[in-house]
Amino acid sequence: MMKFNSKTIGYVIFIIAMLLFPALADSKWLAIGSTFLIFSVVGLSEDIILGKGGMFNMGHALFFGIGAYTAAIANKSFGIPILYSIPLAIIIPALCGIVLAGPIIHLRGDYLLVATIGFNIVFLQLVENNIFGITGGPNGIFGLDTPSFLGMDLASPTAIYYLGVGVLILTFFIMANLDRSKAGRALHYLRLDELAANSIGINTRGYKLFAFGLGAGIAGLAGVLLAIQYSAVSPEAFNFMQSVLFFSIVLVGGSSLPGILMGTFVMFVLPEIFRDFATWRYFIFGFAMIFAMILRPEGIFPARFGKIPEYFKRG
Amino acid sequence: MDIFFQQLVNGLTIGSIFALVALGYTMVYGIMKLINFAHGDLVAMASFVGLTVYDQFLGKTTNSILAVIIIFAVTGTIIAMAGIVLERVAYRPLRKAPRLSAVVSALGASLVIQNGIMLIWGPRMRFFPADILPAITWNIGGVYISFIQVVILVISLLIMVGLIFFIDKTRVGAAIRATSIDHDASRLMGIDVNGIITLIFVIGTFLGAVGGLFIGLYYRGINFNMGWNYGLYAFVAAIIGGIGNIPGAMVGGMLLGIFKAFIAGYVSSTWADAFTFTLLIAILVVKPTGIMGERVAEKV
């Protein structure tokens, strides 16, 4: 049962605003809105692994990319309509997340971070070298089919935007349930103290892999949306720099929903609005990252979980 | 067989550069348990500063050896000062904060430096002039060795031997080793911990600056965003050798350089990154503390 507190009301207002947005926006603003939705979903999916699971994953663009490429390859090489490729583009990244994380999940913080960077770089090089001749090399894959479902044409920017809203609401729903579920609590305690969690019988390894799989699957779904929006995929959208941005957005935002949405807005939407600002954005954002961390080391909107006393939350 | 020895020479050259850069990573990690993501960007900045110093002040000197020494001294000093500023602004306020805050701060510093380079020197590739050092190449039994390769190998080796001597045999070195084990206990023993950390940043960034200048002199083309690449490779070198371990970083750098050269020679340079990072992951899976790292007990 949902309780009506200020937080719930905030979400409802946000979702209503997102739903009404196309009525006010022209096509350029609609595209910007879709970008915001897609990257928000990726940011939130990174939060499942990094914020909730406490695993230093700095290769998240990898799963975003696997999802986008799965949809593009399914469409281009196998002729599957792009919307029907969605299940594949969720399952394959989720499996990749579990299989790749499996051998490295026991690594301590920084080592895990470097291993995930490694995966991202290997993925990018496989794609750029046009492995099996299906990834299109450095140019990527373009000219994907426009989405249609049961004869309905969903190619309009408004339809793509609403697809994004739907996925974002789904992500909200998954994350709110995760917070209240057994898995969410297990993740929370193993982030606080893995050894203690293990000794009271929490299957730490299993839950860590679950978080990786879930985060990767949602990122893959966002990847499909990106492929639909541009009807193309290309390697540079999934490089290591993007992973760094997702990583930073979660931590600067404080692993909380408003923080991540704000971070996504600043990093992916503002540069599209202010074209002249684009060359300065990383320079300014770099300073903002340093000062945000100095002033608020736990993020701008630190996440609150249940009624756990403050002194338990020290990472 | 020629290609084997040729790639060995090339690998040792690039390996010494990796090793020089890796020392900065490994020393900072040893003292502060922090991946200094901005280190690679300081290395890139050194290449640009070095090129500007050469263009502005030394372009017309005839004595090229003296010119090179001045470039190294001036650039090294500037970059070492940048290292001090970096530590003061981005890392010192976060020493008691959660680990990840410092990682994000380091990433932020990296973005600032990298894009600062782009805003100052522009986004296009710049080139070191070819005639800074004499372009001599020796042919030894079919293997080509250039003057610059000899310079890089010899100077890197001297620096590394000097550094090991400094850490192992001097009083300051002992203070560094003590600080890396326990900050608080060192402070009780009368060690100026902040001073040691500053010193580590000075040494690390100075060595990185030497590496950055070698990159410019050896490859000639430099790019504002090359710091990420060299930083990552140096970091991989540090991990292969066991992070926090100074001789390990040197061995790791050399091994990585040779490995990368052999991949480029026998497979293809477009696959070098994929092989390198696969190797990294394999090493992490089997022996996370690196080939020369000691077992680190889990702190509970």
UniProtKB/TrEMBL annotation, chain A:
Superkingdom, taxonomy of origin: Bacteria
Statement: the UniProt record of this protein carries the keyword Cell membrane: yes
Species whose genome carries this gene: Desulforapulum autotrophicum (strain ATCC 43914 / DSM 3382 / VKM B-1955 / HRM2)
Keywords of the record: Cell membrane, Membrane, Transmembrane, Transmembrane helix
Chief location bin: membrane
Cellular component terms per the entry's GO annotation: plasma membrane
CDD domains associated with the record: TM_PBP1_LivM_like (cd06581)
Membrane topology: Multi-pass membrane protein
Name recorded for this polypeptide: LivM2
Subcellular location: Cell membrane
Transmembrane feature ranges: 9-25, 31-49, 61-78, 84-104, 111-127, 159-178, 209-232, 244-270, 277-295
GO molecular function: branched-chain amino acid transmembrane transporter activity
UniProtKB/TrEMBL annotation, chain B:
Its membrane topology: Multi-pass membrane protein
Annotated Gene Ontology cellular component terms: plasma membrane
InterPro entries linked to this entry: ABC_transp_permease (IPR001851), BCAA_transport_permease (IPR052157)
Subcellular location, record wording: Cell membrane
Superkingdom in the source lineage: Bacteria
GO MF, any single term: L-phenylalanine transmembrane transporter activity
UniProt entry keywords in alphabetical sequence: Amino-acid transport, Cell inner membrane, Cell membrane, Membrane, Transmembrane, Transmembrane helix, Transport
GO biological process: D-alanine transmembrane transport; L-alanine transport; L-isoleucine import across plasma membrane
Main location: membrane
Segments traversing the membrane: 12-30, 65-86, 98-121, 141-167, 196-219, 231-256, 263-286
Stated family: Belongs to the binding-protein-dependent transport system permease family. LivHM subfamily.
Identification of the protein by name: LivH2
